[in-house]
Amino acid sequence: MILRYLSLIVLTVVFIMSNAYDIHALEPEELFSETAIVIDTKSGDILYEKDSDRKMYPASITKIVTAIIAIEDGDLQEIVTVSKNARNQDGSRVYLLEGEQLTLEKLLLGLMINSGNDAGTAIAEHFDRSERAFAKRMNTFVKEKIGTEDTNFTNPHGLFHPDHVTTAKDMAKITNYAMKNDTFREIVGTKVIDWVGEGWETTLYNHHRLLWDYEGTTGVKNGYVPESGHTLVTSAQKNGMELIAVTMNASSKYYSYYDTMALLDYGFQNFTTEMINKGQLLADAMGQEYMLAKNIYVAKQEDDSIKLAVSKDKQLVVQIGNEEKIKEDVLVEQKKNDLNPVPSKNTNVSASIELQVEKESNFITIVLVFIGLCMIILIVSVFQKKRRRKKMQERYTHSIAYSRRSRN
Question: Residue 111 sits in which domain range?
Answer without folding.
Answer: 48-225
